[in-house]
Protein backbone atom coordinates (compact mmCIF):
# COMPACT_ATOMS: atom_id res chain seq x y z
CA UNK A 1 0.00 0.00 0.00
CA UNK A 2 1.23 3.48 -0.85
CA UNK A 3 2.19 5.70 2.11
CA UNK A 4 -0.36 8.43 2.78
CA UNK A 5 0.12 11.67 0.90
CA UNK A 6 2.07 14.33 2.78
CA UNK A 7 0.09 17.00 0.95
CA UNK A 8 -3.39 16.32 -0.40
CA UNK A 9 -5.05 19.04 -2.48
CA UNK A 10 -8.71 18.78 -3.55
CA UNK A 11 -10.85 21.23 -5.50
CA UNK A 12 -8.40 24.08 -4.94
CA UNK A 13 -9.22 27.38 -6.66
CA UNK A 14 -7.73 30.81 -6.01
CA UNK A 15 -8.33 34.33 -7.26
CA UNK A 16 -6.69 37.73 -6.87
CA UNK A 17 -8.75 40.90 -6.71
CA UNK A 18 -12.46 41.34 -6.16
CA UNK A 19 -15.60 41.83 -8.21
CA UNK A 20 -15.08 42.62 -11.88
CA UNK A 21 -11.32 42.90 -11.31
CA UNK A 22 -10.98 39.39 -9.88
CA UNK A 23 -8.63 37.11 -11.78
CA UNK A 24 -8.75 33.38 -11.13
CA UNK A 25 -5.23 31.90 -11.13
CA UNK A 26 -6.01 28.33 -10.01
CA UNK A 27 -8.92 26.21 -11.21
CA UNK A 28 -10.07 23.10 -9.31
CA UNK A 29 -6.64 21.63 -8.61
CA UNK A 30 -6.65 18.01 -7.40
CA UNK A 31 -3.26 16.50 -6.62
CA UNK A 32 -1.26 14.68 -3.95
CA UNK A 33 2.43 14.77 -3.03
CA UNK A 34 4.15 11.78 -1.44
CA UNK A 35 7.23 11.09 0.71
CA UNK A 36 10.55 10.70 -1.06
CA UNK A 37 9.53 12.15 -4.41
CA UNK A 38 10.46 15.26 -6.36
CA UNK A 39 7.64 17.05 -8.16
CA UNK A 40 8.68 19.81 -10.54
CA UNK A 41 6.09 22.50 -11.25
CA UNK A 42 6.53 24.28 -14.58
CA UNK A 43 4.63 26.73 -16.71
CA UNK A 44 4.66 30.30 -18.01
CA UNK A 45 4.88 33.32 -15.72
CA UNK A 46 1.50 34.09 -14.20
CA UNK A 47 0.32 30.50 -14.62
CA UNK A 48 -0.14 29.96 -10.87
CA UNK A 49 3.04 28.08 -9.91
CA UNK A 50 4.17 30.29 -7.03
CA UNK A 51 0.58 30.71 -5.85
CA UNK A 52 0.17 26.93 -5.62
CA UNK A 53 3.44 26.66 -3.72
CA UNK A 54 2.55 29.41 -1.26
CA UNK A 55 -0.90 27.93 -0.61
CA UNK A 56 0.50 24.44 -0.05
CA UNK A 57 3.15 25.95 2.22
CA UNK A 58 0.58 27.67 4.46
CA UNK A 59 1.87 31.09 3.37
CA UNK A 60 -1.51 32.14 1.93
CA UNK A 61 -5.08 31.50 3.03
CA UNK A 62 -7.04 28.86 1.17
CA UNK A 63 -10.11 30.46 -0.45
CA UNK A 64 -11.82 27.47 -2.02
CA UNK A 65 -11.17 23.76 -1.81
CA UNK A 66 -9.01 21.81 0.60
CA UNK A 67 -5.31 21.44 1.37
CA UNK A 68 -4.25 18.90 3.97
CA UNK A 69 -0.61 18.77 5.03
CA UNK A 70 0.26 15.73 7.12
CA UNK A 71 -3.44 15.42 7.95
CA UNK A 72 -3.91 19.05 9.03
CA UNK A 73 -6.56 21.00 7.10
CA UNK A 74 -5.25 24.43 6.06
CA UNK A 75 -8.54 25.97 5.00
CA UNK A 76 -9.91 28.12 7.83
CA UNK A 77 -6.97 27.08 10.02
CA UNK A 78 -5.97 29.47 12.81
CA UNK A 79 -2.61 31.20 13.05
CA UNK A 80 -1.26 28.69 15.59
CA UNK A 81 -2.16 25.76 13.37
CA UNK A 82 -0.57 27.43 10.33
CA UNK A 83 2.60 28.10 12.31
CA UNK A 84 2.80 24.44 13.35
CA UNK A 85 2.31 23.38 9.74
CA UNK A 86 5.00 25.74 8.44
CA UNK A 87 7.47 24.19 10.87
CA UNK A 88 7.07 20.93 8.96
CA UNK A 89 8.24 22.63 5.76
CA UNK A 90 11.70 23.68 4.64
CA UNK A 91 11.71 26.61 2.21
CA UNK A 92 14.42 27.24 -0.40
CA UNK A 93 14.19 30.32 -2.62
CA UNK A 94 16.08 31.80 -5.55
CA UNK A 95 17.64 34.36 -3.19
CA UNK A 96 19.70 32.59 -0.57
CA UNK A 97 18.56 35.02 2.18
CA UNK A 98 21.70 34.38 4.22
CA UNK A 99 22.71 36.81 6.96
CA UNK A 100 26.08 38.24 5.95
CA UNK A 101 27.16 39.03 9.51
CA UNK A 102 26.80 35.40 10.61
CA UNK A 103 28.95 32.39 9.83
CA UNK A 104 27.65 29.62 7.61
CA UNK A 105 27.05 27.42 10.66
CA UNK A 106 25.15 30.22 12.43
CA UNK A 107 23.00 30.79 9.33
CA UNK A 108 21.88 27.17 9.53
CA UNK A 109 21.38 27.34 13.30
CA UNK A 110 18.92 30.23 12.86
CA UNK A 111 16.24 27.80 11.74
CA UNK A 112 16.39 26.05 15.12
CA UNK A 113 15.67 29.16 17.20
CA UNK A 114 11.94 28.31 17.12
CA UNK A 115 12.63 24.91 18.71
CA UNK A 116 12.32 25.35 22.50
CA UNK A 117 14.20 22.10 23.13
CA UNK A 118 17.27 23.20 21.15
CA UNK A 119 20.33 24.41 23.04
CA UNK A 120 23.29 26.31 21.61
CA UNK A 121 25.34 23.13 21.69
CA UNK A 122 22.69 20.86 20.16
CA UNK A 123 21.76 23.35 17.45
CA UNK A 124 25.41 23.77 16.45
CA UNK A 125 25.87 20.00 16.35
CA UNK A 126 22.77 19.63 14.19
CA UNK A 127 23.85 22.48 11.88
CA UNK A 128 27.28 20.91 11.38
CA UNK A 129 25.64 17.56 10.65
CA UNK A 130 23.57 19.12 7.86
CA UNK A 131 26.51 21.08 6.49
CA UNK A 132 28.41 17.79 6.32
CA UNK A 133 25.55 16.21 4.36
CA UNK A 134 25.60 19.03 1.80
CA UNK A 135 29.39 18.94 1.55
CA UNK A 136 30.20 22.22 3.31
CA UNK A 137 31.45 21.19 6.75
CA UNK A 138 34.88 22.69 6.07
CA UNK A 139 33.25 26.07 5.32
CA UNK A 140 31.21 26.25 8.54
CA UNK A 141 33.30 29.13 9.97
CA UNK A 142 33.19 31.26 6.81
CA UNK A 143 30.86 34.17 5.97
CA UNK A 144 28.41 33.99 3.05
CA UNK A 145 30.49 36.44 0.94
CA UNK A 146 33.31 33.87 0.90
CA UNK A 147 31.17 31.24 -0.86
CA UNK A 148 30.13 30.76 -4.47
CA UNK A 149 26.49 30.99 -5.55
CA UNK A 150 26.14 27.21 -5.62
CA UNK A 151 27.65 26.89 -2.17
CA UNK A 152 25.29 29.54 -0.78
CA UNK A 153 22.35 27.60 -2.16
CA UNK A 154 23.68 24.47 -0.45
CA UNK A 155 23.71 26.42 2.82
CA UNK A 156 20.09 27.42 2.16
CA UNK A 157 19.23 23.75 1.63
CA UNK A 158 20.98 22.79 4.88
CA UNK A 159 19.03 25.49 6.70
CA UNK A 160 15.77 24.21 5.17
CA UNK A 161 16.54 20.66 6.29
CA UNK A 162 17.97 21.27 9.75
CA UNK A 163 14.58 20.80 11.43
CA UNK A 164 13.96 17.53 9.55
CA UNK A 165 10.96 18.83 7.60
CA UNK A 166 8.47 16.54 5.93
CA UNK A 167 8.26 18.78 2.87
CA UNK A 168 10.79 20.92 1.02
CA UNK A 169 9.43 23.74 -1.13
CA UNK A 170 11.89 25.32 -3.55
CA UNK A 171 11.01 28.31 -5.75
CA UNK A 172 13.46 28.70 -8.66
CA UNK A 173 16.45 27.41 -6.64
CA UNK A 174 18.69 27.18 -9.72
CA UNK A 175 17.73 30.44 -11.44
CA UNK A 176 20.78 32.39 -10.24
CA UNK A 177 23.23 29.51 -10.74
CA UNK A 178 25.31 28.33 -13.66
CA UNK A 179 24.53 24.98 -15.22
CA UNK A 180 27.00 22.92 -13.17
CA UNK A 181 26.06 24.54 -9.84
CA UNK A 182 22.34 24.25 -10.58
CA UNK A 183 22.75 20.58 -11.39
CA UNK A 184 24.61 19.96 -8.13
CA UNK A 185 21.84 21.66 -6.17
CA UNK A 186 18.98 19.61 -7.63
CA UNK A 187 20.95 16.37 -7.40
CA UNK A 188 21.50 17.15 -3.74
CA UNK A 189 17.79 17.79 -3.26
CA UNK A 190 16.96 14.50 -4.93
CA UNK A 191 19.43 12.57 -2.78
CA UNK A 192 18.18 14.15 0.45
CA UNK A 193 14.53 13.64 -0.52
CA UNK A 194 15.16 9.90 -0.87
CA UNK A 195 17.29 9.69 2.26
CA UNK A 196 15.03 11.73 4.55
CA UNK A 197 11.71 10.61 2.96
CA UNK A 198 10.46 14.13 2.47
CA UNK A 199 8.51 15.43 -0.51
CA UNK A 200 10.14 18.09 -2.68
CA UNK A 201 7.99 20.62 -4.57
CA UNK A 202 10.22 22.53 -6.95
CA UNK A 203 9.06 25.45 -9.11
CA UNK A 204 11.39 26.09 -12.04
CA UNK A 205 11.76 27.30 -15.61
CA UNK A 206 15.01 25.33 -15.95
CA UNK A 207 14.52 22.60 -18.57
CA UNK A 208 18.00 21.23 -17.81
CA UNK A 209 16.94 19.64 -14.52
CA UNK A 210 13.69 17.95 -15.53
CA UNK A 211 15.22 14.48 -15.53
CA UNK A 212 15.62 14.52 -11.72
CA UNK A 213 11.86 14.75 -11.24
CA UNK A 214 9.53 11.90 -10.39
CA UNK A 215 6.62 13.96 -11.68
CA UNK A 216 6.33 17.06 -13.83
CA UNK A 217 3.29 19.26 -13.26
CA UNK A 218 2.51 21.82 -15.94
CA UNK A 219 0.48 24.82 -14.79
CA UNK A 220 -0.91 27.12 -17.44
CA UNK A 221 -3.79 29.58 -16.99
CA UNK A 222 -4.51 27.94 -13.64
CA UNK A 223 -5.05 24.42 -14.99
CA UNK A 224 -2.73 21.53 -14.21
CA UNK A 225 -1.54 18.56 -16.25
CA UNK A 226 0.81 15.88 -15.04
CA UNK A 227 3.47 13.63 -16.51
CA UNK A 228 4.79 10.88 -14.23
CA UNK A 229 8.48 10.25 -14.90
CA UNK A 230 8.68 7.73 -12.06
CA UNK A 231 6.17 5.56 -13.91
CA UNK A 232 8.18 5.93 -17.12
CA UNK A 233 11.25 4.68 -15.24
CA UNK A 234 9.25 1.70 -13.99
CA UNK A 235 8.37 0.90 -17.60
CA UNK A 236 12.08 1.07 -18.45
CA UNK A 237 12.77 -1.43 -15.65
CA UNK A 238 10.00 -3.65 -17.00
CA UNK A 239 11.61 -3.54 -20.46
CA UNK A 240 14.92 -4.59 -18.87
CA UNK A 241 13.21 -7.65 -17.38
CA UNK A 242 11.89 -8.74 -20.78
CA UNK A 243 15.33 -8.10 -22.23
CA UNK A 244 16.68 -10.42 -19.53
CA UNK A 245 14.14 -13.12 -20.44
CA UNK A 246 15.31 -13.00 -24.05
CA UNK A 247 18.53 -14.67 -22.83
CA UNK A 248 16.68 -17.77 -21.57
CA UNK A 249 16.29 -19.83 -24.79
CA UNK A 250 20.06 -19.90 -25.39
CA UNK A 251 20.55 -21.18 -21.80
CA UNK A 252 17.93 -23.96 -21.98
CA UNK A 253 20.64 -26.65 -22.44
CA UNK A 254 22.48 -25.39 -19.33
CA UNK A 255 20.39 -25.73 -16.13
CA UNK A 256 22.99 -23.95 -13.99
CA UNK A 257 23.15 -20.91 -16.25
CA UNK A 258 19.37 -20.81 -16.51
CA UNK A 259 19.05 -20.97 -12.71
CA UNK A 260 21.46 -18.04 -12.41
CA UNK A 261 19.39 -16.01 -14.87
CA UNK A 262 16.25 -16.84 -12.91
CA UNK A 263 17.79 -15.59 -9.66
CA UNK A 264 18.68 -12.27 -11.29
CA UNK A 265 15.21 -12.02 -12.81
CA UNK A 266 13.58 -12.58 -9.41
CA UNK A 267 15.68 -9.83 -7.86
CA UNK A 268 14.63 -7.38 -10.55
CA UNK A 269 10.95 -8.33 -10.40
CA UNK A 270 10.86 -8.21 -6.59
CA UNK A 271 12.33 -4.71 -6.68
CA UNK A 272 9.79 -3.60 -9.29
CA UNK A 273 6.59 -5.01 -7.79
CA UNK A 274 6.35 -2.85 -4.63
CA UNK A 275 7.06 0.28 -6.66
CA UNK A 276 4.27 -0.59 -9.07
CA UNK A 277 1.93 -1.37 -6.18
CA UNK A 278 2.79 1.98 -4.62
CA UNK A 279 1.99 3.73 -7.90
CA UNK A 280 -1.36 1.95 -8.28
CA UNK A 281 -2.39 2.84 -4.72
CA UNK A 282 -1.86 6.57 -5.20
CA UNK A 283 -4.48 9.09 -6.15
CA UNK A 284 -3.62 10.07 -9.73
CA UNK A 285 -5.30 11.58 -12.79
CA UNK A 286 -7.36 8.97 -14.61
CA UNK A 287 -4.90 8.54 -17.49
CA UNK A 288 -1.95 7.94 -15.15
CA UNK A 289 -3.96 5.62 -12.91
CA UNK A 290 -4.83 3.56 -15.99
CA UNK A 291 -1.17 3.40 -16.99
CA UNK A 292 -0.15 2.25 -13.51
CA UNK A 293 -2.79 -0.49 -13.49
CA UNK A 294 -1.79 -1.54 -17.00
CA UNK A 295 1.84 -2.13 -16.07
CA UNK A 296 0.96 -3.75 -12.75
CA UNK A 297 -1.10 -6.29 -14.73
CA UNK A 298 1.80 -6.80 -17.13
CA UNK A 299 4.06 -7.54 -14.15
CA UNK A 300 1.83 -10.51 -13.34
CA UNK A 301 2.11 -11.65 -16.96
CA UNK A 302 5.89 -11.43 -16.97
CA UNK A 303 6.08 -13.50 -13.78
CA UNK A 304 3.89 -16.17 -15.38
CA UNK A 305 5.95 -15.95 -18.57
CA UNK A 306 9.17 -16.64 -16.68
CA UNK A 307 7.63 -19.56 -14.81
CA UNK A 308 6.55 -21.09 -18.14
CA UNK A 309 9.98 -20.56 -19.70
CA UNK A 310 11.65 -22.37 -16.82
CA UNK A 311 9.54 -25.48 -17.48
CA UNK A 312 10.38 -25.72 -21.17
CA UNK A 313 13.80 -27.46 -20.84
CA UNK A 314 12.18 -30.42 -19.06
CA UNK A 315 9.56 -30.77 -21.83
CA UNK A 316 12.29 -30.48 -24.45
CA UNK A 317 14.33 -33.21 -22.74
CA UNK A 318 11.29 -35.50 -22.66
CA UNK A 319 10.46 -35.16 -26.34
CA UNK A 320 13.91 -34.99 -27.91
CA UNK A 321 15.00 -38.64 -27.41
CA UNK A 322 11.91 -39.90 -29.22
CA UNK A 323 12.68 -38.02 -32.39
CA UNK A 324 11.19 -34.62 -31.67
CA UNK A 325 14.38 -32.62 -32.14
CA UNK A 326 13.03 -30.61 -35.08
CA UNK A 327 9.83 -29.79 -33.22
CA UNK A 328 11.79 -28.70 -30.14
CA UNK A 329 14.10 -26.59 -32.26
CA UNK A 330 11.10 -24.88 -33.87
CA UNK A 331 9.54 -24.06 -30.51
CA UNK A 332 12.75 -22.77 -28.95
CA UNK A 333 13.74 -20.74 -32.00
CA UNK A 334 10.26 -19.21 -32.19
CA UNK A 335 10.36 -18.23 -28.49
CA UNK A 336 13.84 -16.81 -28.94
CA UNK A 337 12.59 -14.65 -31.81
CA UNK A 338 9.44 -13.50 -29.98
CA UNK A 339 11.28 -12.63 -26.75
CA UNK A 340 13.92 -10.63 -28.60
CA UNK A 341 11.21 -8.87 -30.59
CA UNK A 342 9.31 -8.06 -27.38
CA UNK A 343 12.46 -6.72 -25.72
CA UNK A 344 13.21 -4.50 -28.73
CA UNK A 345 9.62 -3.20 -28.86
CA UNK A 346 9.62 -2.31 -25.15
CA UNK A 347 12.96 -0.53 -25.48
CA UNK A 348 11.97 1.49 -28.54
CA UNK A 349 8.30 2.10 -27.62
CA UNK A 350 7.76 2.69 -31.31
CA UNK A 351 4.14 2.23 -32.46
CA UNK A 352 5.21 0.12 -35.43
CA UNK A 353 7.26 -2.28 -33.24
CA UNK A 354 4.42 -2.64 -30.75
CA UNK A 355 1.87 -3.30 -33.50
CA UNK A 356 4.13 -5.92 -35.09
CA UNK A 357 4.55 -7.71 -31.76
CA UNK A 358 0.79 -7.74 -31.20
CA UNK A 359 0.27 -9.27 -34.66
CA UNK A 360 2.97 -11.89 -34.17
CA UNK A 361 1.64 -13.04 -30.82
CA UNK A 362 -2.03 -12.80 -31.81
CA UNK A 363 -1.64 -15.26 -34.65
CA UNK A 364 0.89 -17.34 -32.68
CA UNK A 365 3.29 -17.13 -35.66
CA UNK A 366 3.91 -19.72 -38.34
CA UNK A 367 6.10 -21.71 -35.96
CA UNK A 368 3.05 -22.62 -33.86
CA UNK A 369 1.32 -24.07 -36.90
CA UNK A 370 4.50 -26.01 -37.65
CA UNK A 371 4.49 -27.40 -34.10
CA UNK A 372 0.92 -28.65 -34.52
CA UNK A 373 1.67 -30.25 -37.86
CA UNK A 374 4.75 -32.04 -36.58
CA UNK A 375 2.93 -33.36 -33.53
CA UNK A 376 0.02 -34.69 -35.62
CA UNK A 377 2.51 -36.37 -37.92
CA UNK A 378 4.43 -38.05 -35.08
CA UNK A 379 1.98 -38.85 -32.31
CA UNK A 380 0.58 -42.02 -33.89
CA UNK A 381 4.04 -43.63 -34.04
CA UNK A 382 5.43 -42.29 -30.75
CA UNK A 383 5.57 -43.53 -27.20
CA UNK A 384 3.17 -42.22 -24.57
CA UNK A 385 6.06 -40.55 -22.76
CA UNK A 386 7.03 -38.67 -25.93
CA UNK A 387 3.44 -37.65 -26.62
CA UNK A 388 2.98 -36.29 -23.09
CA UNK A 389 6.27 -34.39 -23.20
CA UNK A 390 5.41 -32.95 -26.59
CA UNK A 391 1.97 -31.89 -25.42
CA UNK A 392 3.62 -30.19 -22.44
CA UNK A 393 5.99 -28.38 -24.78
CA UNK A 394 3.18 -27.19 -27.02
CA UNK A 395 1.12 -26.09 -23.99
CA UNK A 396 4.06 -24.19 -22.50
CA UNK A 397 4.81 -22.59 -25.84
CA UNK A 398 1.24 -21.38 -26.16
CA UNK A 399 1.32 -20.07 -22.58
CA UNK A 400 4.44 -18.04 -23.31
CA UNK A 401 2.93 -16.56 -26.45
CA UNK A 402 -0.30 -15.82 -24.57
CA UNK A 403 1.51 -13.82 -21.90
CA UNK A 404 3.64 -12.06 -24.50
CA UNK A 405 0.49 -11.08 -26.37
CA UNK A 406 -1.00 -9.47 -23.27
CA UNK A 407 2.23 -7.56 -22.64
CA UNK A 408 2.35 -6.47 -26.28
CA UNK A 409 -1.27 -5.32 -26.23
CA UNK A 410 -0.72 -3.19 -23.13
CA UNK A 411 2.43 -1.73 -24.64
CA UNK A 412 0.45 -0.75 -27.73
CA UNK A 413 -2.27 0.83 -25.55
CA UNK A 414 0.36 2.72 -23.56
CA UNK A 415 1.97 4.12 -26.70
CA UNK A 416 -1.39 5.05 -28.22
CA UNK A 417 -2.48 6.90 -25.06
CA UNK A 418 0.88 8.63 -24.50
CA UNK A 419 0.13 11.92 -26.34
CA UNK A 420 -2.91 12.51 -24.15
CA UNK A 421 -0.87 11.90 -21.00
CA UNK A 422 2.14 14.01 -21.75
CA UNK A 423 2.39 17.37 -20.05
CA UNK A 424 2.60 20.30 -22.46
CA UNK A 425 6.08 21.63 -23.02
User: Per the principal axes of the C-alpha atoms, what is the gross shape?
Assistant: elongated
The N- to C-terminal Cα distance equals 32 Å
Helix content percent band? 55-70%
CATH class placement of the largest domain:
Alpha Beta
The domain tally reads 2
In words, what does this structure look like?
The protein is of the alpha/beta class and 425 residues long. It has 2 domains: 7-229, P-loop containing nucleotide triphosphate hydrolases (Rossmann fold), CATH 3.40.50.300; 230-421, Up-down Bundle (Methane Monooxygenase Hydroxylase, Chain G, domain 1). The protein has helices at residues 49-56, 79-86, 104-109, 120-133, 149-161, 179-196, 229-245, 248-251, 255-281, 286-319, 325-348, 351-362, 365-378, 384-421, and strands at residues 7-16, 23-33, 38-42, 64-69, 72-73, 89-93, 167-171, 199-203, 215-220, 223-228. The protein has a 6-stranded mixed β-sheet with strand order 6-7-8-3-9-10, with helices on both faces. Helix 6 links the parallel strand 7 (167-171) and strand 8 (199-203). Helix 7 runs antiparallel to helix 9 (255-281), helix 7 packs antiparallel against helix 11 and helix 13 (365-378) packs antiparallel against helix 14. The longest helix is centred in the last third of the chain and has 38 residues, at 384-421. Residues 419-425 have low confidence and may be disordered.
Amino acid sequence: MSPPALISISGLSHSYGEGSLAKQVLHNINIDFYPGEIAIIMGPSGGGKTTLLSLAGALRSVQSGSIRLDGAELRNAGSRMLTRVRRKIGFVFQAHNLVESLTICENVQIALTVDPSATAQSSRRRALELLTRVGLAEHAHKRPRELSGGQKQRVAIARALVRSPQVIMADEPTAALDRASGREVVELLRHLAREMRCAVLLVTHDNRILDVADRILSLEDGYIEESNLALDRLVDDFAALVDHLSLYPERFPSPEQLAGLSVEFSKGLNALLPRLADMVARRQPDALATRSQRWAASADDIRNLEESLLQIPKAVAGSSPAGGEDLCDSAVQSLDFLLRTAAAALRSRAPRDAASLVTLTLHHSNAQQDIRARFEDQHERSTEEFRNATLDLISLYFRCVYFLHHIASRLKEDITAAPAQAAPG
